[in-house]
């Protein structure tokens, strides 16, 4: 249900006002299925880094389904950080299990809005 009213304009320099007549429109939305994703990703990292000082970062992949899942992971290069860890990886997470990925970042630039290297995760297949 949507309730709405038209704005009126008396062609003068006064701002448009709303009329007192409210219209109610009722319509049905098409049904659709919401597909649940069984994967959740969480990151653990310090709130800030210091230039040329190691900064540990870890990602936890959780599989909430009853099937093993295989994922392809890529970490994009960054001008602002050196990275220690797998840049490309294919990994498997057991049903109801968790996989932890650990990295060490070395900040090369100072600043408040330095973007972290981008982590890309894509499903390879479900087993």
Short précis:
With 127 residues, the chain is mostly beta strands. It contains no helices and 11 strands.
Q: What labels describe this entry?
A:
single chain, 127 residues, mainly beta, Immunoglobulin-like, 11 strands
What do you see in this structure?
The chain has 127 residues and is mainly beta. It has a domain at 39-126: Immunoglobulin-like. It has strands spanning 2-4, 7-8, 17-18, 23-25, 39-44, 55-63, 69-75, 81-84, 88-93, 98-107, 119-126. The strands form four sheets. A four-stranded antiparallel beta sheet has the order 5-6-10-8, with no helix packed on it. The chain has a three-stranded antiparallel beta sheet with strand order 9-7-11, with no helix packed on it. The chain is flat and about 65 Å long.
State the strand order across the main sheet: 5-6-10-8
Distance linking N and C termini:
43 Å
- Note the quaternary state here: single chain
CATH superfamily of the domain at 39-126: Immunoglobulins
CATH topology description of the domain at 39-126: Immunoglobulin-like
Give a count of the beta strands, DSSP E runs of length 2 or more. 11
Provide the helix percentage. under 10%
Which class of the domain at 39-126 in CATH terms?
Answer: Mainly Beta
Mean pLDDT: 86
Spatial shape: flat
What share of residues are in beta strands? over 45%
Sheet with the most strands? 4 strands, antiparallel
**Count of alpha/pi helices:** 0
The value of Rg in angstroms is 25 Å
Order of helices and strands: EEEEEEEEEEE
User: Unreliable stretches, pLDDT < 50, 5 or more residues?
Assistant: none
Structural class: mainly beta
CATH architecture classification name of the domain at 39-126: Sandwich
């Amino acid at each position: 249900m949507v309730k709405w009213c038209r704005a009126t304009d008396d062609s003068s320099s006064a701002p448009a006002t709303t009329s007192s007549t409210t219209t109610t429109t009722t319509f049905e939305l098409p049904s659709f299925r919401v597909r649940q994703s069984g994967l959740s990703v969480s990151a653990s990292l310090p709130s800030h880094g210091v230039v040329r000082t190691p900064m540990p970062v870890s990602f936890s992949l959780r599989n909430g389904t009853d099937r093993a899942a295989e994922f392809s992971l890529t970490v994009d290069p960054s001008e602002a950080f050196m990275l220690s860890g797998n840049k490309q990886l294919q990994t498997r997470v057991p049903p109801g299990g968790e996989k932890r990925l650990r990295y060490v970042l070395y900040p090369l630039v100072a600043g408040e809005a330095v973007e972290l290297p981008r982590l890309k995760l894509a499903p390879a297949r479900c087993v």
